[in-house]
Amino acid sequence: MAWVLALVLFAEALGVAALNWILGILVDRQEMSLAGLDPHLMSVSSKIGGIVFGLYFALCGLVALLVALRDRAPAGFGRVLLVSVAVVHALLGAFAWGLVGPTAFLAMVVVLGLVVLLLMTYDGRPGEPAGPADGPGGGSPVTPPTAPTAP
User: Is the pTM of this model over 0.70?
Assistant: First the structure.
């Protein structure tokens, strides 16, 4: 599942970057303006936004790829990135329903479902029973130190 999510996020990174780059080129060539804004500024900001979001989705795809390669659940900053990309896809899905239609909404929900499934169910070790090593103590019981005896 982590492999599929990594591929989807890498494809999405390329798609978002390419779409914003193409939109930036179109705005620049048509010299379109929105409420008097400079067309060149709009073009450059569209390209920069595409690169930033493309790198963000690629970084999230890298986290999913590392989860698949290491066969361990994401932790720390990687987990935060995956939670944030889940929130982004939920918001994109909500906007897509109104602006694009149900097909784009379903695509966003599928990616959201993959991210949430990875976060909620992936333990990386199928078939192993949960033992004491899985707890917060690391598996070895801690024995309190003994008090020194008086001579």
Answer: yes
Amino acid identity of residue 37, one-letter, is L
Q: What was the pLDDT predicted at 2?
A: 85
Mean confidence (pLDDT) of the chain: 83
Q: Tell me which amino acid residue 135 is.
A: G
SS (H, E, C) the chain: CHHHHHHHHHHHHHHHHHHHHHHHHHHHHHCCCCCCCCHHHHHHHHHHHHHHHHHHHHHHHHHHHHHHHHCCCCCCHHHHHHHHHHHHHHHHHHHHHHHCCHHHHHHHHHHHHHHHHHHHHCCCCCCCCCCHHHCCCCCCCCCCCCCCCCC
The tokens describing 105, both together, are: 């909404």
CA atoms within 13 A on the CB side of 69: 7
Sole residue written with tokens 């914003």:
20
- Give 72-113 as a DSSP string: S---THHHHHHHHHHHHHHHHHHHHHHHT-HHHHHHHHHHHH
For the stretch 94-144, pLDDT in tens is 998 888 889 989 999 999 999 999 888 876 555 454 445 555 555 555 556
